[in-house]
Amino acid sequence: MSERKDEIILRGLTENNLKNIDLNIPKEKIILFTGLSGSGKSSVVFDTLATESRRQMTLNYPLYVRNQMPRYERPHADLMQNLSPVIVVEQRPIGGNSRSTVGTYMDIDPLIRLLFSRIGQPPIGSATDFSIQSSFGRCPECGGFGEVIAPDVNKLVDFDKSLREYAVQFKPLSPSGWQGNWMMTCGLFDPDLPLKDYPEEKLRLLLYGPREGERAYAPFHTKNGPHNAEWDGLLPRFTRVYINRDISKLKQVSQEDVIAVSTHSLCPTCQGSGLNPQVLECRINGLNIAEYDQLELPEILKELKNIKEPMGESIAKQAIPYVQQLVDMGLGYLSLSRKMGTLSGGEAQRVKIARHLGSSLNNITYIFDEPSAGLHQEEVKLLIQMLKRIKDQHNTVIVIEHNLSVIKVADEIIEMGPGAGVNGGKVVYQGKLEGLTNTPTAKALKQKIQINKSPKGRKSYFSMRGARNNNLKNVNVDIPKDVLVSVCGVSGSGKSSLILEAFKERYPDSITVGQGGIGISSRSTMATYMGIMDDIRATFSKATGQPAGLFSFNSLGACPVCKGKGVITPEVAFADPVTIPCEACGGTRYSDEALSYRYEGKNIIEILELTIDEAADYLKQQKILNRVNTLKDVGLGYLTLGQTTSSLSGGEIQRLKLASQLQKKGQIYLLDEPSLGLHAEDDEKLLNVFQTLVNKGNSVIIVEHNLDFIAASDWIIEMGPGGGKQGGQILFEGTPEEMLNAETVTAKWLNEGVR
């Protein structure tokens, strides 16, 4: 290949499982990376290309600025040339606090506030006065939250118990915490008398504190003697410490703990907007700022285009493109006030993409991690148009993707493989779509969708009546038991509201496997996550007569030099971080003593280097075998027992979570887009897992867009017809064969896939 300047040159890549590969990636094209889950796509795109670009970008800043920025280690590669700045659009949930909305994330809210401050009538003042973040702007009653939260005395207190018997049912105020201890020892209250037997005045003092103008001294006893303190009342204290302050900073208690013992109702003063009633008086063309926030996006566009006042028109023109981008991405059913945390995976992904579409920069490398995730086939068309638009602005678009429609529009395809994990890490194909033959992707492109023509019989049902969660329109539905059910429909149509909320509320014992990541640290391995590491250590302990802790790199068996990390990161001021394998243990994490003991001829490291497939033949304990077999069932047999969970791909994590739940004898499994991150070849393995579960008498309900999964189901429910207010209804219930005769968007694509 000629090494021209208009291509990214990568040589000798060895990050994670990459087998010393070389790549030339042309610029200003749509480059698509595909391959089995765990084949090495992310290792090339994220861990090498994106990391090195970011590392080199930070080198342009002065040292004192770089010290405040994220620091990147140089990836394992011989040569990385002609990189351009990268913008990464990942699948990770959007961060931000509980107040983060579509309007704040897209930077539309500041423009709307500016608009109201300039042309709203009657005039209020500055733009910041229209925000719940300002002391004037926020509602004086609810502090800007839109809800009045108050302690519920009947949830907080069990009047049949004494203080010592945990009458206060909120952990930080119970005897297990210092505040509960203080109540029992301050001398004001009898700690052993049930609260229902307290004299009325004493109970009032405990719950509400002293009457106005009075004080109640309550010494606080420490090892240094009593300290003067005043009792303020259980409910006032709860309100002050846990409701009127940011409890995300507290370690012992979460928002959910507080809500569990509280009542919350719509604030009557601001009607849920969180804004000062004076601010709500200010209007533009009859609408106040809270009403603007509640409009669906096409309605906002209409309002903004109606503004003719010169000052207002110039501000509206700045906001219109941002709103238009969201509408173009098929998100017209959202409002600016929609909380980012409530968006589905597909919706959040598209909001992120829309945010980058407004940029006029070019010669940038955009990296998309499965942008079709969470999108209905109908919406993938919008995505493809958007990718082409970004490329046409002289940018390079790199996409990791399994969706066949997206693969078909790529200018160049790079398939990683041939297998996954240790069996992957090579480039099995690079070139145009026409030349793709004899690879898993080539096979998937040729395959037709297989309709399940003999679905399992339906004998009994889970019944739901009058479901109204989010946008659900009083939905009544009977979902068959002991079969595989797919719930489909466009983004925002109500699939998650129906299954992951309404259904889960009615059947709380359901086992949910969602899209969220797992808590991953460099010390978490496949064996620890699956709960078999203790059994492996116990096996070694029994065979050698040594303590089990000797076979843990977090305990007695840790290498004394790297303390069980396997690597050493020297602190070099101002330099990029460098991770060096520990010379003492050779990166194994274990001490020489730990490695000197053997079980069946192998030391602990040699056991952890076994793949899941090999472990099934080598380890004899039934509990270990049961768990190892569930990993094989979900197609993770190629991973090793000692592989760190932090090195797994998104598809592998999803299947690992599923495997960890398969050991439970649960009756109902709810899965949120289980095909996420999976190549078509992996889909088959996962469908087999579902069939096995169903054959054992379990119910499996999946929220899914993948047509292979929908076609293989026993029963399909389609939500729609649109998203947001236009959704929330059931369009179709029936078997895959019956769906071929239906007139819905999913039926249209199913028919196309069968042809």
From TrEMBL:
Q: Which PANTHER family match?
A: UVRABC SYSTEM PROTEIN A (PTHR43152)
The ABC transporter domain covers: 3-449, 449-752
Which coarse location class describes where this protein primarily resides?
Answer: cytoplasm
* Annotated protein name in UniProt: UvrABC system protein A
Q: Which organism is it from?
A: Chungangia koreensis
Q: Where located?
A: Cytoplasm
Family classification: Belongs to the ABC transporter superfamily. UvrA family.
Lineage of this protein's species?
Bacteria, Bacillati, Bacillota, Bacilli, Lactobacillales
Please provide the record's keywords in A-Z order.
ATP-binding, Cytoplasm, DNA damage, DNA excision, DNA repair, DNA-binding, Excision nuclease, Nucleotide-binding, Repeat
